[in-house]
Design brief:
Chain lengths: 329, 329
């Protein structure tokens, strides 16, 4: 019987996670019961939201318990199936965690779109992060052609897609990221009209002449405060993430709601899971833009499941270039 | 020639305004030019937003300059008219300020609805504060029957209408106000289902079992923080006012936008002026609810224009019972 290597939560991180907050263990690979599918995992995703699951604080999802496998989107191959919709050899994606094998109910899995190359796109541009950008930008932010759309964390997995989608919708795009290398990528790879390096420029000065119609916010904190000062009348602020706050025990209040009166503005949060009934629409559009070359992407791949914690810590520190993934096999 | 007594801004208030921040002067009553109307003012309104106009900070409206007449909605009688839509004797309402006479362009005035009794209702329940509650609640908050609607500043001019409108829409209403007298009024006069005295109860405890679908926020600050902890999924936060912040030189950031992700919630500001094209609709509905006895109201009238500053300071301190007005004549 093969064994299943897994990365589990060994301790609740205090601030930025350390490698010792994770453990690697081995268990038997379970057999799939009726309606279940056994998947051999090829690659797992590394995302900021995972930090939230490691805390005990009340949030939209149950926190991980100590000893639990780290939650993640993972892509893999069906080995055994007790669900008529899946057959051995199918490539599937689902919330399968940081491990080598997973058993899941068929209803929780999606087939990787046929011909998607590489299949790991189902973990980002044509998967959760692409869908997050797609529904967050279009359904919550509702950009109009001609709008100025500002994206924070613009070189991140969601931000790089959000900017490109805004560009496809006829908007002027302003991306904010940290460091010259990321900012070059914003302009060259992700086609931002304006790319601002918040680490090496005064953000207030850089945004002085902007009127922000849509702010797609991945980071919160100081960066967002600078953007909030440049809102236009009727602005929409999409709260996608607040990564600057994830390592803080108590998130700092950073926003004065009175600003929403002055600008008659709307600030709205969303969770991608609430759009599950429309994932088919999003995947189809995103796959088609990737195939036509209109949607650029970049992967930052770490080899070896045992290196997932290190990749995760690096991603929280902004070390990744493109979507952070771990190749398992 | 009659003279016009006016209350003007003598100094920019530092924190809570003092009577010495205002001056009473006398000027000649000007004659109306082509398209203009001369109005003899009967009553002027006293509202929290006026505090904002006294500061130099950037906002949605130009700040008052020293020596300017204090901005207000006022109701009065047409004395002379060079606009065919108005005749001497007509009762009109408009942004005419704290003074005895005003000349205004006809297009900036509205007729007080025929038979409205008392006509000062055009300054509140069937005027600016009623319209603020009507469009803020229905267009921004979008309550559904069965929703729980929480109103802060619930005994204030806007809050007392907002709660009653929510009740008319089939919602459960929770009003927050300061002091036993106001809270009694919430339950008895304004029909709130639950009335909370934040000065004499722990707001966190009082709201413990609530799930807030719509929060109509007039105050901001600490009170709002307690309400934000009880949002339901899909909650809507209407930012109508932030009166707790108006006397502060720098409003304190009081909100962590990440909460909007957890609850997939929306926070939105609005200005009543943006709904001017729909004032007819709002006035008709509000007047009809007042006439049928479905919309209760209460006026807190101060006599004498010279006492307007004192009424204003009292209102900012929460001393008024019902809509604060000053009777001029």
């Amino acid at each position: 019987m093969p064994t299943n290597r897994r990365v589990t939560l060994a301790a609740r991180p205090d601030g930025l996670p350390k490698e010792s907050d994770f453990a690697l263990d081995q268990v038997d690979v379970p057999g799939p019961k009726s309606g279940e599918v056994l998947v051999r995992i090829h690659a797992v995703s590394v995302d900021p939201y995972q930090r939230g699951r490691m805390s005990e604080a009340r949030s939209y999802a149950k926190p991980l318990q100590l000893g639990d496998v780290i939650t993640s989107q993972s892509v893999g191959e069906v080995m055994e199936s007790n669900d008529g919709r899946f057959s051995p050899g199918d490539l599937v994606v689902g919330q399968l965690g940081w491990q080598e094998y997973a058993v899941a109910r068929g209803g929780s899995l999606r087939l990787v779109p046929h011909g998607l190359d590489p299949p790991t796109l189902a973990l980002h541009a044509v998967g959760a992060t692409g869908l997050t950008a797609y529904f967050g930008l279009f359904d919550v932010g509702r950009p109009r052609a001609g709008d100025t759309v500002v994206v924070s964390g613009a070189a991140g997995a969601v931000g790089q897609i959000a900017g490109q989608l805004a560009k496809l919708a006829g908007c002027r795009t302003v991306g904010i990221a940290g460091g010259p290398e990321k900012v070059r990528e914003l302009a060259e790879l992700y086609r931002y009209d304006v790319a601002v390096d918040y680490k090496n420029a005064d953000l207030g000065d850089a945004l002085r002449d902007e009127r922000v119609d849509v702010y797609f916010d991945n980071v919160g904190g100081e960066i967002s405060r600078a953007v909030h000062r440049r809102l236009s009348i009727g602005a929409r602020i999409v709260i996608c993430g607040q990564v600057s706050q994830y390592n803080q025990a108590r998130p700092e209040p950073s926003f004065h709601p009175g600003a929403l009166i002055v600008y008659r503005a709307r600030m709205e949060g969303f969770l991608i899971g609430d759009y599950a009934h429309r994932f088919g629409e999003g995947v189809m559009r995103l796959a088609s833009w990737v195939a036509s070359g209109d949607l650029h992407w970049r992967e930052d791949v770490t080899d070896g499941l045992e290196n997932a914690p290190q990749a995760f810590i690096g991603m929280l520190n902004g070390a990744n270039r493109g979507k952070a993934l771990v190749r398992v096999t």
